[in-house]
Amino acid sequence: MYLLAFETSCDDTSIAIFCDGKLIAMKTRSQIREHNETKWVVPEVAARLHANNIFGVLEEVLWEAKISLREIDVIACTQSPGLMPSLLVGMSVAKTLAKTLSKPYLAIDHIEAHMFANYIGRETSDIPFPSVCLTVSGGHNELYLWKSMFEREKIGETLDDSAGEAFDKVAKMMGLEYPGGPIIGKLAGEYAGEFRGIFPKVLLDKNSHDFSFSGLKSAVKREVDKRMMNSPSLNENDIREIAFEFEQTVVNILSHKLFHAAEMHNISSLVLAGWVSANDRLRETIEQLAKEKKYHFLAPISKIYSQDNAAMVGILAHHRYMKSS
Questions:
Q1: 2-116+306-324 and 128-300, same CATH topology
Q2: Which of 18, 76, 189, 251 is surrounded by the fewest CB atoms within 10 Å?
Q3: What's the sign of the alpha-carbon dihedral 61, 43, 112, 161?
């Protein structure tokens, strides 16, 4: 069975093909260069770029898989959440193909797909249930009780900015490139000093699973402004230190919430999902704490699957289709 999956929820045009549940081809066209001009994703610009790119990406992925559209058995596409203009491009193409080819169409939840990215390259038995899953990306930041493959309960969410959004905004404050996560991670890794905790570790109520990053973002802005009072720009050491302090504070908040939720619900299995799960410091911190506390821990096997990608859409669609067949 061949399954064709589309992902256009934000600024990457990604299409993947699966054969009997195995990923055999994926192509992704990035928009980073275009969005660097604004340091942010402008929805209308992203949608136009998706429309320009999607058929070229489709042709490339079919060529890589060495199959034709007529051989496709099932078509799936991200439906929500995401930037609506971008989502509509992918859904319009996917639904049109499904109708033209008389094939089943599956609408996929973006966040659930990020969670299912942990199944890529693994067996279904590799994720023990129940688990606590931290999903953290540019537009979302939640904690879920993942009770079984298709049963999840949201137990925490961001009350304002997501961690990924905070990374982008802090990078913009310092005049860095978009997206902010990778460049802040790189600069933080170059800082040689010790962690001083110059930014607040916002945890809200001690028993709350919710997140808030707006206060942290504001604290960074005050620190940037303070260091620029007598200078037109930040020096390289200032940039590295702020990146390091900010990243470590975010990691401390996310890991604290994840382990606290696991303890409160008496669950020993932890899962990380979303593009911030590609952050080396976050993954290494949670992995080390999990070993010390004897928790089972999983994250996507490759950073490619942490980012927005069609493989995560396809793996979820495969399991949903097999369940309903």
A1: yes
A2: 189
A3: positive
Helices 236-264 and 180-190 sit at what angle, rounded to 10 degrees? 110
Rounded Cα distance, 149 and 133, in Å: 12
Condensed to tens digits (0 to 9), the pLDDT of residues 174-208 reads: 999 888 999 999 999 999 999 999 999 999 888 89
Q: Report which residue type is found at 229.
A: M
Closest CA to 287 of 278, 302, 297: 297
Which sequence spans correspond to the domains of the chain? 2-116+306-324, 128-300
Task: Read off the pTM.
Answer: 0.94
Residue 6 contacts residue 15 (beta carbons within 8 Å): yes
With a cut of 50, list the residues of the chain below it in pLDDT: none
**Class of the domain covering 2-116+306-324:** alpha beta
In degrees, rounded to 5, the angle at the alpha carbon of residue 113 between the alpha carbons of residues 110 and 114 is 90
Q: How many CB atoms lie within 10 A of CB 284?
A: 11
- Which pLDDT does position 153 carry in this prediction? 98
**pLDDT tens digits for range 239-283:** 999 999 999 999 999 999 999 999 999 999 999 999 888 999 999
CATH of domain 128-300: 3.30.420.40
**Alpha carbon 216 to chain centroid distance?**
20
Secondary structure (DSSP) of 239-305: HHHHHHHHHHHHHHHHHHHHHHHHHHTT--EEEEESGGGG-HHHHHHHHHHHHHHT-EEE--SSHHH
